[in-house]
Amino acid sequence: MADVLERVGWSVDFRSDQTCCGQPAFNSGHVTPAREVAAHFIRVFRDAEFIVVPSGSCVSMITHHYFDIFDRSSALFEEAEYLAPRVWEFSRFLTDVVGVEDVGARFEGVVTYHDSCHALRELQIKEAPRRLLSNVQGLTLREMSAAGECCGFGGAFSVKFAEISGGMARTKIESILETGAGTVVSIDSSCLMQIQGALARAGVDVRTMHLAEVLASR
Fold this sequence. Notes:
Layout: H1 2-7, H2 23-27, H3 31-45, E1 51-53, H4 56-69, H5 75-83, E2 87-89, H6 90-98, E3 106-113, H7 117-122, H8 127-134, E4 137-141, H9 157-160, H10 162-179, E5 183-186, H11 189-202, E6 207-210, H12 211-216
Parallel strand pairs: 1-2, 3-4, 3-5, 5-6
């Protein structure tokens, strides 16, 4: 992601003391630890011009659910309000802030795109990744029939409801295979981890890549 941002003219500052956004704890009902991690996130990034994140689920947590864990009368709630407009998912940052859809990438092969739940449903991110992929030289994008269906990960959901999670993953794999694609692309690493695991268990020779990896390819 940093390579791509620098290629299109932006300076990248990686804050080495950053940690998690707090979503795993929040999703599991542990609000106090989530609040502590979120407060640390705000302290680390409070003076950043833009915070670009390679994960739709993290962006959703920061821009939507920080308001659920901080008291409305607290200073941290106000800081979360100030921070949220500066937090951008990677693909949307490229298309909406940088104003670029062709980053000079080349990737040979057929790919299919998976819409992660948080990006699609909470952030309404659908077209930006596809526009970026369509401008990659040598790349053919083939839509799968179940592009917008959940992969079955859902954090703790995949552990607590393993059979349901596995069934959802198998449906996703079937949809991927129908496209004939050799690569599955998404903007959430958690989804890619779930899909890659299902592909490996099924013995299917299809790889997973984050959108940033594809756009960084020359």
